[in-house]
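CO-FOLDING WORKSHEET

Operator: S.A.
Ligand of interest: magnesium ion
Run index: 231
Mode: holo prediction, single chain
Checklist:
[x] sequence pasted
[x] SMILES validated
[ ] output reviewed
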Amino acid sequence: MLKVEGLNVRYGKSHVVFDFSVEVEDGELLAVLGRNGAGKTTTIRGIVGLLPGASGKVSVGGRDMSGWPAHRRTRDGLAYVPSGARCFQNLTVDENLEIAAHANGNDRSWTKKRVWELFPKLEPLKNNLAGGLSGGERQMLAVGRALMSNPRVMLLDEPTEGLAPVLVQSIGTLLGTLKSTGVSILLAEQNHQMALRVADRAAFIEKGRIVEVLPTARARDSEVLHRILGV
Ligand SMILES: Nc1ncnc2c1ncn2[C@@H]1O[C@H](COP(=O)(O)OP(=O)(O)OP(=O)(O)O)[C@@H](O)[C@H]1O
Ligand SMILES: [Mg+2]
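OUTPUT RECEIVED:
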């Protein structure tokens, strides 16, 4: 389970995220929705430990990670898939997965074989440089890399950005599959339709503050979508 308590983030003097607190259960997907500039990316990067101006408490499975550097958080249960699906462009697909691997000594560990099974389109490309992949292929590789760290919690920042509708669908299906493996997922999305198809709850943020947390069924046909997202 992911628990975030009182996350505040500042860029220098500019206070961008205010008292962000959520709990995401094992196997639960929480969508974080908000307009451009609302603070979704900053919230995620704050949870991952990438921002020096962040304060607050982050724990995974009861383990307090507050104050840990990002590399230690991502080694011990948090996986981050940044927007734009950044990978090592000059390494092959295979090498990108290899260096992301973190054994956790249990046989349900993710392996390259399991990643190929999940993304059959990726395997024939395994000796290609990541820099030459299409946007959708790179997104699959980014998710595959995150899985290779055997996370308990996945934080995804706009994984459907720039993807064709058919790939948006497959990311949605994938997130559903991941949930069923017990991973807790926090998903920041502009594509609220896709997010609300797979989410259990949605947290709406406006100007860096959570203004509403709703079960998905209520979020879907809510005036909140109109009021906060303007859709
Ligand atoms: N490095 C930075 N330095 C100063 N301000 C920043 C920095 N990065 C982001 N901001 C500001 O913080 C606010 C939140 O930005 P953030 O990128 O978290 O929003 P977002 O919800 O992810 O937006 P989008 O939907 O466009 O991705 C914005 O006002 C943005 O201009
Ligand atoms: Mg963003």
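REVIEW:
The domain at 2-85+153-229 is CATH 3.40.50.300 (Rossmann fold).
The two ends are 31 Å apart (CA to CA).
[x] output reviewed
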